[in-house]
Amino acid sequence: MLYPQRFNQFTREHADTVAAISCGLLLFLGWFALHLGWLGFAFLLLPAAYVIGGYESAREGLTTLFKEKELDVDLLMIVAAIGAASLGLWRGEYHLIIDGAILILIFAISGALEGYAMARTERSIRSLMSLTPDTARVLLQGREEEVPISQLKVGDEIVVKPGELIPTDGIILSGYSSLNQAAITGESLPVEKTVGAEVFAGTLNGYGALQVKVHKPAQSSLIQRVIRLVEQAQTEAPPSQEFIDRFEKGYAKVIVVAGVLLATLPPFIWGWDWETTIYRALTFLVVASPCALMAAIMPTLLSGIANGAKQGILFKNGAQLEKIGKVRAIAFDKTGTLTTGQLQVFQVIPVSEYTQADVLKAAASVESYSEHPIGKAIVQAAGETVRVLAVPVESKLLNPKGDFDLVGAIQVQAIPGQGIVGIAREQQVIVGNAVFMQQYVTNLPEELREMAPSLEQEGKTVVWVAQGNIAEVMGVIAIADEVRSQGSATITRLKKLGVEQIVMLTGDNEETAHSVAKAVGIDRVYAQLLPEDKLDVIRLLQQKYQTVAMVGDGINDAPALAQASVGIAMGISGSDVALETADIVLMADKLEKIAVAIHLGRRSQSIVKQNIVVALGFIMLLLVGNFLGSINLPIGVIGHEGSTVLVTLSGLRLLK
Prior knowledge:
Blueprint: H1 2-13, H2 15-36, H3 39-67, H4 73-91, H5 95-126, E1 135-140, E2 143-148, E3 157-160, E4 170-174, E5 177-180, H6 182-185, E6 191-193, E7 198-199, E8 204-205, E9 210-214, H7 222-235, H8 239-264, H9 266-269, H10 274-287, H11 291-294, H12 298-310, E10 313-315, H13 318-324, E11 329-333, H14 334-338, E12 339-350, H15 356-367, H16 373-389, E13 409-415, E14 419-424, E15 427-432, H17 434-437, H18 446-457, E16 461-467, E17 472-483, H19 487-496, E18 501-505, H20 510-520, E19 524-526, H21 531-545, E20 548-552, H22 558-563, E21 566-570, H23 576-581, E22 584-586, H24 593-627, H25 633-651
Parallel strand pairs: 11-18, 11-20, 18-19, 20-21, 21-22
Antiparallel strand pairs: 1-2, 1-3, 3-9, 4-7, 4-9, 5-6, 5-8, 10-22, 12-17, 13-14, 14-15, 15-16, 16-17
Helix pairs in contact: 2-3, 2-5, 3-4, 3-5, 4-5, 4-10, 5-12, 5-25, 8-10, 10-24, 10-25, 12-13, 12-24, 12-25, 13-24, 15-16, 24-25
């Protein structure tokens, strides 16, 4: 039973190839029978070759004719083949039946080759589908139980053992490991992750066991969004392909009319005999068909989409791959795009009698109760300082998890937009801006007051720290959003690629905006913008540069992303609204991938143009050869189908 099953599976998966092989075998036997004079046997074999080799093309052609009331290339091929056979029977020149069968055979072989070529692109894209397991190991009342991914709920805790795929997006509760994220983000090296880090479905766990908490529905995971968008990209035709499709419909009608005229007028105008006239008219139907032109675009764009997916660049459809190659201006959001979006302590400046660790520990004792990003940055920096300096753990400074003990401060009161006050180790601690601090301290240290403005001009937020029942300033902490390490190199690369205008759009203040812009090399800055203001800037850029890209990550960027010719969202830090609105998603939040995307877009346009030139060139060459009588029907078919396969394979160059 095993061998029949394998044979049936092979025939299903390679139906076009089986049809082409069968057609070729029947054609050879029919030709051999004609050669021996066995006409009855030949007339059984050759029609079978026509039916088996041409069935699929005839079905597609007739479906298009009756359902859409349009002529297509498949039907023209069948008409040409049947016309050649009819002419052969009429004139008793049976070699014309062989010519028609050769036409169908070459067309069938071409279809099989194109199918394999496109399957390669399909496999490259569809490999995403196998990146998630079907089940997850869930902790239920202390026991592990395997459940289908579709049944996972937010809040479930799952166990991922070494060497297993992460089944869904989540937050690590316990464990430490390295994860291979290449399939999702395009990162070539494994990423070390521990408690609190986010993991993504489809990434491969390394050496450590992890306990992960599900924090979003499985269907909302990054990989599932990728799969949905890739499916959408495969079904949507870009504008260039839509133009070619419209062109084909009109072109097929022109070919039919021209074919009828060529089959009737030459005997009266040039004195051709009817056999030559009809034969050349049939050859014209073959060589003038735009198969190669139809294959000039989509294989190239699908290959580019597959290439981008492997590098962590998700194009939602082929139209965006076309547009990104034409971009002349790019607008960047600041927070979360040019910067990481996570505040960090950049500098701690204590007064003479205190150390940096003293300032951070005092501030963290009250900020550990705050949910404000500034407070979280101070607590994180203080914890790292304690570990690095190996400060003895006294007065329950650290709890078992390595965080500051929340019991360390009492009577904590936060004043929004100003600061926070509490009592730690029986001393009052005040943390906040200069105005807030002056409510508790009579005189701020002169050296710190002089230093604070320069720090603020660099785009940093200055936090003052004081301690004691009679408050005494301990120092200041400079906090800022970290600029992405690859930001400057990306801007330089974009300028080298010939992008004419690069601007930054932000709702932040002028000083912070210009500080970040200077760090990455952007000359033009639009600051203190509302979402609708960003939209207006994009429109102004489009008036001057036509094709404009917008790179952003937040909800406030969504209007500008939608308005831009190409919207580009950060895949990890980006909000759901930004991801849904954008046309391209950078899966690993790597800015340098923008330059890669532009290069892919330009290369795809170059290959498409080359393919169109090759396709039109072959059509013109074959048409001239046909009118001069230099080619017969089989040679015309070989030239026509050969050019189709050539441009299809040419499009697959983008897979590399």
